[in-house]
Amino acid sequence: LLGASRDDTAWVITVTLLVSAVCTPISGKLGDMYGKRRVALVLLMILVAGSVICALSPTVVPLIIGRGLQGAGMGVVPLGISILRDAVPPRRLGSAIALVSATLGVGGALGLPLSAYVTENFDWHALFWLAAVISLVALILFAVVVPADTVRNGGRLDLIGALGLALGLVGILLAVSKGNQWGWTSPATLSCLIGGVVVLLVWGVYELRVTNPLVDIRVSARGPVLMTNLASIAMGFALFSSSIVFPQLLGLPTQTGGLGLTLLSASFVLMPSGLAMLAMSPVAGRLERRLGPKPLLVAGAVLIALSYIGALAFDLDVVLVLVFNILIGVGIGLGYAAMPTLIMQAVPRSETGAANGLNTLMRALGTSVAAAVVAVILTESSVAFGDVMVPSSAGFQAAFACGLAAAAVCAVVAVFIPRPKAHPEEQASLPEGVL
Hints:
By secondary structure, this protein is mainly alpha-helical. It has helices spanning 6-34, 36-55, 60-72, 76-87, 90-121, 125-145, 159-182, 187-209, 217-220, 223-251, 263-291, 293-313, 318-346, 352-380, 393-415, 424-427; strands at residues 383-385, 388-390. 79% of the residues lie in helices and 1% in strands. The chain has a two-stranded antiparallel sheet with strand order 1-2. Helix 7 runs antiparallel to helix 8 (187-209), helix 11 (263-291) packs parallel to helix 13 (318-346) and helix 12 (293-313) runs antiparallel to helix 15 (393-415). The radius of gyration is 21 Å and the shape is globular.
């Protein structure tokens, strides 16, 4: 459609991933310093601008620029969750976090059939005009409804820390996202990966010595925060394994072992998973008040693992894909409701935005690694179908096994998340019954 090479058009996806990964923790820190509402409004403006640029793009270069700006807007997600701690009564905090976390799935669920319909019937630019309108509505509602900031810690942004984090993350994520294309042992991939790791190690030492660091390493190293972030990586991997496999399985021709659905039909099969996340949010909130967030995270991971076991044990048809994907959505809903609460229990109120931004980054890292690993599995196991190569059933099974392993790791790590030791001034902001 754009008259560009496959390598160039791949950046339409990659740039959003990179910019989102870099901007999310930085946005969280800026929110703690200058006000979460103020920073979120700026990010929504950038999101609107990025969507309009994409909608007006005649070639791939402005489209990539617009997609990068859209990636910057993803920093709104952890800021929105962090605002809840300042604006919602403690007894309702768990339910509010569960509901806001569930909207991640709901947006995707509604976007699937809507995008499929637009793609099949209209020019692709219409997708981005729609995104611009939705972003503008969100901006207006945010400005009107969300209360003014009450918690700010001021100070100056750690620019060197932000630059170091950006360089390290870009190196690692470039290696992960492009490794399959460049070759996993190619000089470009190894240089990005090793360079990114080295930069992050130096960055971590630097952050320990700064008065007002971009990321407080000491807070992030607390047992509850560290273990929750590790569980987040594993859950992100478990989520994205199914997000890659199920759409391909549904859309491939029946002659290749697929289910032969159209794009629109497949989207309706996948949509209920996100709606299940929304339906579970009030349940998750009540369970979190009674049991605390940790059992919720364990239960969510176990449910995802059971779904993958079912996918491995049965010959999948449309109904089974629908059922297992809904169960994964419920599990993700429970996990995503629990993780921000676990983080906020263990960090000072002044670090809420930065800590949630880092946790969101960990989830994104898990999804990125899953995309790379599953892509390698499906590519290496592909079989010929006419003039093209398509994933084999063995490849799908291996991808499901990876998702199962990630869910199991998440459950085990979640079991060992220690009880947080909140400071007296922090306890008033936590949900009842979780200390």
